[in-house]
Amino acid sequence: MSARPDLEQRLGHRFADPGLLDLALTHASTGQADAAAISNERLEYLGDAVVDLVIAHELFLAHPDWPEGHLTWTRATLVNTTELAARARELGLGDELRLGKSERQGRGAEKERILANAFEAVVGALYLDGGLDAARPLLVRLFEDALNPDAEPPERDAKMRFQEWAHQHRNVTPTWRTLGDSGDADDPERFEAAACVGDAVLGRGTGRTKREAERAAALDALASADDG
Hints:
The protein is mainly alpha-helical. The chain has helices spanning 5-11, 18-24, 35-38, 41-62, 68-78, 81-91, 101-105, 112-130, 132-142, 158-170, 210-227, and strands spanning 175-181, 191-197, 200-207.
């Protein structure tokens, strides 16, 4: 019998191999000699791919009239650290995590990165134990509102608009490069970022966070594109 029947009920799956679920909830901070082998890091890697696949597929089916840019941006707004951590909290994963002493003292079970990684690891465990038939229902349930066919695409910000421009005019997906970091958390221009298409830098920007800097770089690239 599983040692985590309540969690399995929340996940909607009874594990044939309960050890997979235990591994998914074991953080590398437990301090074992080979953290990759006896922590959730490898399952996190697998779960990340499964989450991307399922969400991309469900968005594709739910919104047959959306262009590629809307699908890509919507997936990015759903599959990120903040959103995945929120789903981990819905499932109560923080209370189930095995953490090392330092992370327990540092309230690691409340940290977004640890929670998001645990969520992906649990999805990876579900996939290994029962395939997509085990992982997909959980993801569809947790992201139900966003996957509704009547849902509107999220508001397009500068990064999305630049991505659409790059797809239309260069037939590539742009990338973002961090050019500098002052290290000063109070610096409104702490980060400098570049908006790139291939090896070409089309825009630069600064901001207090990497995201702000990337948005500023996207605006700069869009302004240059309009001028051109």
